[in-house]
Amino acid sequence: MNKVIFSHKLLVVIGLSLICALPAGEAFARGEGGRRHDDRPAIVAPRRHDTIVVRNEQYHYRDGRFFRRNFFGFFFPVPPPFGAVVAVLPVGHTTVMVGGYPYYYYDRVYYKPCPSGYMVVAEPRVNTTVIYSQPAPVQTEIISEDTISVLVPNVNGSYTSVKLVKRNNGYVGPQGEYYPEHPTIAQLKVLYGG
């Protein structure tokens, strides 16, 4: 009697395991075009994950995140591999136009449209042209016999006025630093350039 009950329980467990192993989207009967046989739209559950192969490495993708399987069979998150192609963008992505081309951004990952979906790419960079310009001449103003003021250029195009006091054949700056001879703009930029 106990063997019969055990075998029935075993069959129930095996049957439930097989049902649970089916992807959710295949649990409902559908006809052509994703419709049921009675012409009502089919109920299609979202896929659990997509399997993506990049450079012979297998990844799992779900909702904008990439995973790998470890030795024990558990999934762990990994950085997105460049070149991975996903069929659908994650919900909540934003569109970024760079150089006239659309990129899609979600959770620190950029995607670029490609024929089979959207490819993971590096952060897009805008090419900039650097135009060489002559540095502004050093502007020094004599305030007194022992004090001079030097204009130090800042990154934003403005200037910072630095007063130097002459002492022992050298100069002392506003923070007490000593220059054995007249300091260059490069030396002053270290402390006073912004």
What does this structure look like?
The protein is α+β, with helices and mostly antiparallel strands. Among the domains are: 46-125, no CATH class; 139-192. The protein has two helices and 14 strands. It has helices at residues 2-21, 185-192, and strands at residues 50-54, 57-62, 65-69, 75-78, 85-86, 94-98, 101-106, 109-114, 117-121, 139-142, 147-153, 159-167, 170-172, 178-179. The chain is elongated. The model is unreliable at 20-47 (pLDDT under 50).
Q: Kindly state the number of beta strands.
A: 14
Tell me about the largest β-sheet.
Answer: 5 strands, antiparallel
Q: Low-confidence runs (pLDDT<50, min 5 residues)?
A: 20-47
Work out the helix count. 2
Fraction of residues in helix: 10-25%
In spatial order, strands of the major sheet run 5-9-8-7-6
Q: Order of helices and strands, N to C? A: HEEEEEEEEEEEEEEH
Give the amount of beta strand, in percent. 35-45%
Structural class: alpha+beta
The rounded Rg comes to 34 Å
Spatial gap, N to C terminus? 88 Å
Mean pLDDT: 74
Q: Write down the overall geometry.
A: elongated
Concise synopsis of the structure shown:
The protein has 194 residues and is an alpha+beta fold.
